[in-house]
Amino acid sequence: MTAHTLVTGATGFVGSAVARTLLERGHSLRLMVREGSDRRNIADIPADLVDGDLSRPETFARAVEGCRYVFHVAADYRLWVPDPAPMMTANVEGTRQLMLAAKAAGVEKIVYCSSVAALGLIGDGSIADENTPVQEHAVIGIYKRSKYRAEQEVLQLVRDQRLPAVIVNPSTPVGPRDIKPTPTGQMILDCAAGRMPAYVDTGVNIVHVDDVAEGHALALERGTIGEKYILGGENYLLRDLFAMVSEIAHVPPPKIRLPQEVIWPVAIISEWLSRSFGINPRVTREMLAMSRKKMFFSSDKAKRELGYNPRPARKAVEDAITWFRNNGMLK
C-alpha cells in the first residue's frame, strides 16, 4: 500500500497551495476536509478525501492512518469572533490531539503550520525573527493567542514525547485561490476596487502563497525537528503596499492617513453590528491594537537552512489581483 501524505485545511488558501506543491513533488495525497466545506480549491487535485474537523478529535485516527507525513495547515482563521471558546478549542486542543494521533500512527515527520502571530514582535520598524522574545500577555487578539498556545503545545510534545514535528511560521500570504477571501486578501481587494480611501500607519510582511507552500515542502525535506522557520517575503508599510496595489489595479491610491483615535468609535460600532446582525466587521478594536506595531519579519533562517527563496511581493499582489478579477470578485 502506498503511504499517504495528509494535508489538513487543504480546501483553504494556504492548504490548497501546499497540496498542489506536494502533488508536484510526487506525494500521494490524503486531504482532511470538513463536511460541507467549499471544495473549489481542490476540485482538480487527485487525492483521497477523508472527513475531519479540528473540533472533532474522533476523526483524526482515520485521517492519519497509513500516512508517512502530515502537514497540519487547518485553523480557524478569523481576526474577530463574538465567542473565542470554539476558536481556542479548534486551534489549540485540536492541534494537540491531531499531533498525538499522528504520533500514535507512527507518522515519520510532521510539518505544523503556525504563524508569525505566534512569534515575538518588536513593532517599531525593527525586524523580528524566530528568536525574538515573546510572552502570551503581549500577544494581541484571540486568533494570535490561539496560534501562540498551539505552537507551544507542539513544542512541548516535541520535548516530552519526541514528536517528529517541524514548525513553519508564514507571515502574510497573498496570491491566487483566496476564495473567502482572507482578511489581507479582502484588504487588497478593497484597495484594488477603489474602496480604500484611507489607511493607518502600520506595516506587514507580504509573501506569495505559493512560496509559503514551497517552504512547507522544504521544511519536510530539510527542516530540523523542533525548529521554527519564518516563511515570509518583503516588509511593507501599509501606505506603500496600498500604493503598489493601486498602481497594479489602475486606481487612485488612498491618501488619507487616519489616526487610531478617529477609527476607534467606528470599530466599536462595527463590533456591535456584528454581534447584533452577524455581519463580519471590517475593523475591530483588536485589529487597531495590532496595527500599532509594524509586523516586520526576517526569513533569513529559512533561506539559509531550507533553501527558501521567495519571489518579490509585487508578484504576489499581481497574482492576487489577476485571480480576483478572473473569478468575478473584482469588477
Features:
about 325 residues; alpha/beta; Rossmann fold; seven-stranded parallel sheet; three-stranded mixed sheet; 12 strands; globular
CATH topology of the domain at 4-174 and 207-232 and 296-310, anyone?
Answer: Rossmann fold
CATH architecture of the domain at 4-174 and 207-232 and 296-310: 3-Layer(aba) Sandwich
The top level CATH class name of the domain at 4-174 and 207-232 and 296-310: Alpha Beta
| CA-CA gap between termini | 48 Å
Global structural class? alpha/beta
Determine the mean pLDDT: 92
What's the oligomerization state?
single chain
Helix and strand pattern: EHEEHEHEHEEHEEHEEHEHHHH
Q: Roughly how much helix do the residues carry, as a percent range? A: 40-55%
The 3D shape can be described as globular
Rounded to the nearest angstrom, the radius of gyration is 19 Å
Strand content bin: 15-25%
Give the biggest beta sheet: 7 strands, parallel
Number of helices: 11
Protein name: NAD-dependent dehydratase
GO molecular function: aldehyde dehydrogenase (NAD+) activity
Organism: Acetobacter pomorum
InterPro entries: Epimerase_deHydtase, Hopanoid-assoc_sugar_epimerase, NAD(P)-bd_dom_sf, NAD(P)-dependent_oxidoreduct
